[in-house]
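Good morning,

Attaching, inline, the backbone tokens for the sequence recovery test we're adding to the shared suite. The designed sequence is right after.
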């Protein structure tokens, strides 16, 4: 039996907890034993069978413990993944039972694919990528390390999303478009041309606002 600790006890962490429980038949050897969060009282107002067992900074990995990353903000996710890996922590990849994964798809360690996510075929998902409910990629697309797709995001064929990119709900990246590292795509945006690194774009069509 693998003891699973969820990194982050905020809203997304609570969602991931429920989705792991919902996928128990797919992961019969997983037992969620708690959360890691620097706010030890993060679950005080919620009724969960397990609680926050340690702060992230004070966590000391055990041989039978595995972590699932439930942090949405890409830069924080990157920082915490590095911190925990340096401690010797081991991560798992979680793919919800309703996700659809096509042929020739690579999914990196530590990524989380939420309910009804779709990776069609011949696509690459990096490490610690978050693909939220109803989101996905088309053929030959890629999403690089630590990026986060909010709900109902459509990354179409041959599009490339860089590292630590945050894409808001219901955004669409058109075929072949390249999104630079550390960019932010606003909710509902339609990205029709390449986005330079470190930029923020919003709208239909998406325009630079930072």
């Amino acid at each position: 039996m693998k003891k699973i600790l969820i990194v982050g006890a905020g809203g997304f962490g609570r969602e991931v907890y429920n989705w792991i429980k919902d996928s128990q038949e797919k992961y019969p050897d997983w037992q969620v034993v708690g959360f890691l969060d620097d706010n030890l009282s993060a679950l005080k107002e919620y009724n969960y069978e397990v609680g926050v067992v340690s702060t992230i900074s004070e966590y000391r990995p055990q041989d039978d413990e595995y972590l699932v990353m439930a942090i949405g903000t890409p830069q924080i996710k990157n920082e915490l993944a590095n911190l925990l890996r340096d401690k010797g922590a081991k991560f798992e990849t979680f793919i919800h039972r309703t996700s659809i994964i096509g042929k020739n798809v690579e999914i990196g360690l530590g990524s989380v694919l939420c309910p009804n996510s779709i990776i069609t075929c011949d696509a690459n998902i990096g490490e610690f990528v978050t693909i939220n409910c109803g989101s996905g990629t088309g053929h030959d697309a890629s999403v690089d390390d630590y990026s986060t797709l909010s709900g109902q995001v459509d990354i179409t064929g041959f599009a490339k999303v860089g590292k630590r990119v945050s894409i808001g709900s219901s955004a669409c990246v058109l075929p072949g478009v390249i999104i630079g590292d550390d960019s932010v795509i606003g909710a509902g945006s339609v990205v029709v041309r390449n986005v330079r690194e470190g930029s923020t774009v919003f709208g239909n069509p998406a325009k630079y606002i930072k």
